[in-house]
Amino acid sequence: MRLSFGEKSFNALNYAFLTAAAATMIMPLLHLLAMSFSSPIAADSKKVFLLPVEFTTGSWAHILQTEELWRSFGITVYITVVGTLISMFFSLLTAFPLSRREFLLRKPVMLGIVITMIFNAPMIPFFLTVRELGLMNSLWALIIPGVIGTFNMIIIRTFFMGIPGELDDSARIDGCSDFRILFQIYLPLSKPVLATVGLFYAVGYWNTFQRAVLFLRDPSMWPLQMKLRSYLTTPEELAAVNLFLGDYDFNTTTLKAATIIFATIPIILVYPYLQKYFVKGAMLGSLKE
Amino acid sequence: MQTDARRKRSENRYLNNMKKHWMLYLMILPGIAYYVIFKYVPLAGSVIAFQDYQIFNGILGSPWVWFENFVFLFTYQDFYQVLRNTAVIAFYQLIFGFPAPIILALLFNEVRWMLAKRTLQSLFYLPHFLSWVVVGGIVFELLATQGVMNQIRGWFGFEPILYMQGERYFRSIVVLSGIWKEAGWGTIVYLAAITGINPNLYEAAVMDGANRWKQTIYITLPSMAPTILVLFLLNIGNFLELGFDQIFNLLTPMTYSVGDIIETYVYRAGVLQGQYSVTTAIGLFQSVIGFILLWIFNRLARKSEQGLW
């Protein structure tokens, strides 16, 4: 097909604009990566762009030897793994009945859930409720108060509703209980959607911040994002640990860059693998019923 | 008598259903418990906005003061500042942030080279998965005195600007960083809507001599309208809820005057200083405004097309 001059120039402009905008998505991360491997003098003298200047691993050596940071990393890994498993389990349990026509409470319960998407409980009563339950200063406060993500649960439900009913009719004739239908018939069929929702939950737990701000007063329990935040606001604290090691091949700028990248690496690592799933999943969750 | 019989029958229907599918009812229990405890109980707990809530007496033992907290709010200087900041930022986000994914989706739609399209999309989706702490860190780093932005200004001989400390820039930074992080992700829903458009429509339009611009205006956009409308309504219901993480991670005491929003203020005054009742009153006020806006716009939407209800 031959394109008119107008179309050609629009195409050129469109590609140029989208490419430039897409570059801004990745360049800040590359810049910080370059910063984290640059010498403190180069970092502070406005020389570093996308490649390290006066390459050094000083900042990385420093933060990788910071026990506090590893501790919060461990806490985050823990709540991500445990939280994602628990969230998946309860989301499946909730989504399954809500996907079945023979469940008479389907509509009222669904309505009750959708209402909570429109009316968020105010922060203080939510805070007081969680505190009354004795979850203050407990890692459970990062998991239980948000254990079911409504959006994620709806994604699962929508997927379940697309599974043909004949499948579980025949299973029922064979004497399968609803529980077994869910875990032995529906689950194996739902791998793509489970991967998507699992990713959403895992990212959510990895990035947990507000609940940690609200409920964890004890800094030794802080997950990675909280620790990162405290290092970004008072980088001197990070610089001050491990000083006995001698080598001052870092400063607050390069340390900050290294900690930001450190907290982002896991997400960057899983992103390419799960990408093929999540778009479909996100579409499933959108605007059905 | 007749209605009694009917009620009896429907009771039986439920009982039989429960007996037959008791496992489904058992399965839903944890979910219901979760929504009741963590969504509805706090919603009901909002009554402390009408009390002088004392932590040791609880809701039942605290004295009722009815509208005293609200009267206090409306005569309180800080409240107006926080409300203004919230409303102004929310308004900017609606004007600039809401259309961003729509425009981006339309531009994506014009990319016909699939490999390029997919590569671009993966890059645009990425920031959605970063936390606001990380994005805040990136923003502070790029806009620091020594940061890239000021480096570039330096090439042209301009003086460095203290972006993050400047009241002038804060709201733009909030809106732009929000677009940067979420616009790409937001395109997914719109692209799904575009995929659902009947290709015959385009063919017919081409026969009538419509170019790509005309196809976009007369076919693509109108076909996306229901999706846009629903998302707009959901957005408007949470109009004043900007997202704690973003503002909290961009805010510094120097920018409180323009950037302190309801959620960050409620956190400081409520959670940190224990002024539970007054800050709950603010939260309730926020929800009520959201509901009123939703109601108004839903009515308007129903007049033209379909609304949320």
From TrEMBL, chain A:
Report whether Coiled coil shows up as a keyword of the record.
Answer: no
Query: Cross-referenced InterPro entries, in alphabetical order?
Result: MetI-like, MetI-like_sf
Classify the source by domain of life: Bacteria
Q: Name one Pfam family in it.
A: BPD_transp_1
- Its transmembrane ranges are 12-34, 75-96, 108-128, 140-160, 181-206, 255-274
Ranges of residues in domain ABC transmembrane type-1: 73-271
Q: How does the protein associate with the membrane?
A: Multi-pass membrane protein
List the subcellular locations: Cell membrane
- Quick one: a GO biological-process term for this protein? transmembrane transport
Question: What are the entry keywords?
Answer: Cell membrane, Membrane, Transmembrane, Transmembrane helix, Transport
Main localization category: membrane
Cited CDD domains: TM_PBP2
**Which GO CC annotations does the UniProt entry carry?**
plasma membrane
Question: Would you identify the family this protein belongs to, as annotated?
Answer: Belongs to the binding-protein-dependent transport system permease family.
- By what name is this protein known? Carbohydrate ABC transporter permease
**Organism, as annotated:** Paenibacillus antri
TrEMBL record, chain B:
UniProt-listed Pfam families: BPD_transp_1
Listed A to Z, the keywords are: Cell membrane, Membrane, Transmembrane, Transmembrane helix, Transport
Return the GO cellular component terms, semicolon-separated.
plasma membrane
Which Gene Ontology terms describe the biological processes this protein takes part in?
A: transmembrane transport
Q: How does it sit in the membrane?
A: Multi-pass membrane protein
Q: Where does it live in the cell?
A: Cell membrane
Q: Which domain of life is it from?
A: Bacteria
Where does the record place the ABC transmembrane type-1 domain?
Answer: 83-297
TM spans, by residue? 21-41, 53-76, 88-108, 123-144, 217-240, 276-297
Q: Which Gene3D superfamilies match?
A: MetI-like
Primary location group:
membrane
InterPro entries, per database record: MetI-like, MetI-like_sf, UgpAE/MalFG_permease
Family membership, please give it: Belongs to the binding-protein-dependent transport system permease family.
Q: What is this protein called?
A: Sugar ABC transporter permease
